[in-house]
């Protein structure tokens, strides 16, 4: 959590600085490159993160094979993603354009991401501080480089190199900390084909889920580039950044309550359902407060931090922020999925939401540009994280819980006033 707050603060400061310095068009180029790389990076996800952590903990005698196999699989996946990105750039971008080189430079970071496997070791041994140190140090150095680039008046591609530097440094720092803290040498890691088949057979659903989640977050900016242009991407990226900054709140709340929910499910199902209802109500109330606040202050907020060039981001933000109503409650729903062992339903809803997002973007962006992308984001989250729950018998009770949570801001004051009158 400390790392999250720290990185959000530094990241927001750097985003404001770069957006002001580069302007909407050039900032849009960087946002477009980052979004494209995020989409192709799903090839290296492999659905292995939580699975590998579990395997390290439960099968101590196979740790060398687990880690060695995972890093090879991830390298192959990220390499495939990088090759696909290069092919995309060759087909759809002019060879000498800034967009083409931004994609290649930022995309090169994919080849260094397999080192993130070391983080699985730290998670399995409850040593998250080492990962936090590595990533925070890399972020600070990269941020300092970006500030220096602004001071000297560097061109836009230098900031793409700065992003690449951050990923490379994070990997190097992880490797250094692992070498000095782990009893298992990096050189003892080894690949095993049978282990690879076993891991992949278990991780494919998580991989697809990660792909769909990335589509949610990134496809809007990519499609804005296709239909409108990079300047609109820059304007939209500012609104999305201000909106998505809040998304860590429900994750933190639900993570702290998750172990208690697991115990209640086993010992007291009725109280478990009551607590789950309370969590939905809490998350919806916070999301509603955030959405109302950000809608009212969107214009002065954008003007204060990003300047007059980005005022068009304000009405986009006022729409985009309302997706938080469903994103916040989805955080609790995702834990319900784990408790109830309903991973396949999670995959189906995420896939349906991703398809809805793409379809709505195709329909709305050509006519409404960034406003259309924000509306598509809001509606696709509503479909995937709320309305779709009604059509599955097992999840229908959660649909009614969410519905009750939406009525809570009216229901509780009504009960209070009714009691006063009585």
UniProtKB/TrEMBL annotation:
The lineage of its organism: Bacteria, Pseudomonadati, Thermodesulfobacteriota, Desulfuromonadia, Desulfuromonadales. This is Flippase. InterPro entries: PolySynth_Transporter (IPR052556). It holds the Pfam family Polysacc_synt_3. Keywords: Membrane, Transmembrane, Transmembrane helix. The chain crosses the membrane at residues 5-23, 29-51, 71-92, 98-121, 133-152, 158-178, 199-219, 245-262, 282-306, 312-333, 345-365, 371-392.
């Amino acid at each position: 959590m400390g790392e999250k707050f720290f990185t959000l603060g530094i990241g927001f400061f750097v985003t404001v600085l770069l957006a002001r310095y580069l302007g909407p068009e050039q900032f849009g180029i960087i946002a477009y490159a980052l979004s494209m790389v995020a989409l192709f990076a799903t090839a290296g996800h492999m659905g292995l993160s939580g699975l590998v952590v579990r395997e390290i903990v439960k099968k101590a005698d196979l740790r060398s094979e687990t880690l060695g196999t995972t890093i090879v699989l991830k390298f192959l996946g990220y390499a495939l993603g990088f090759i696909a990105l290069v092919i995309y750039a060759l087909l759809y971008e002019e060879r000498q354009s800034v967009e083409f080189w931004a994609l290649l430079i930022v995309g090169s970071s994919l080849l260094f991401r397999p080192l993130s496997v070391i983080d699985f070791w730290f998670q399995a041994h409850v040593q998250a501080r080492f990962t936090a140190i590595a990533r925070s140090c890399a972020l600070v150095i990269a941020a300092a480089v970006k500030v220096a680039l602004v001071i000297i008046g560097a061109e836009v591609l230098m900031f793409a190199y700065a992003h690449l530097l951050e990923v490379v440094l994070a990997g190097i720092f992880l490797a250094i900390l692992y070498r000095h803290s782990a009893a298992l040498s990096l050189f003892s890691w080894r690949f095993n084909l049978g282990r690879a088949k076993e891991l992949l057979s278990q991780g494919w659903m998580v991989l697809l889920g990660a792909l769909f989640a990335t589509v949610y977050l990134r496809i809007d900016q990519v499609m804005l580039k296709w239909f409108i242009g990079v300047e609109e991407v820059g304007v939209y990226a500012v609104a999305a950044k201000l909106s998505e900054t809040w998304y860590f709140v429900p994750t933190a709340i639900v993570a702290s309550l998750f172990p208690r929910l697991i115990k209640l499910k086993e010992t007291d199902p009725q109280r478990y359902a009551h607590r789950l209802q309370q969590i939905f109500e809490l998350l919806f109330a916070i999301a509603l407060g955030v959405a109302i606040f950000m809608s009212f202050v969107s214009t002065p907020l954008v003007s204060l931090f990003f300047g007059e060039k980005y005022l068009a981001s304000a009405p986009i933000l006022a729409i985009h922020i309302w997706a938080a109503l469903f994103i916040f409650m989805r955080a609790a729903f995702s834990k319900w999925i784990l408790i109830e062992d309903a991973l396949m339903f999670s995959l189906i809803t995420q896939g349906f939401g991703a398809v809805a997002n793409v379809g709505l973007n195709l329909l709305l962006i050509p006519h409404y540009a960034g406003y259309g992308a924000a509306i598509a984001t809001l509606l696709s989250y509503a479909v995937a994280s709320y309305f779709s729950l009604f059509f599955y018998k097992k999840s229908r009770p959660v649909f009614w819980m969410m519905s009750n949570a939406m009525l809570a801001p009216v229901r509780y004051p009504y009960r209070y006033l009714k009691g006063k009158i009585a």
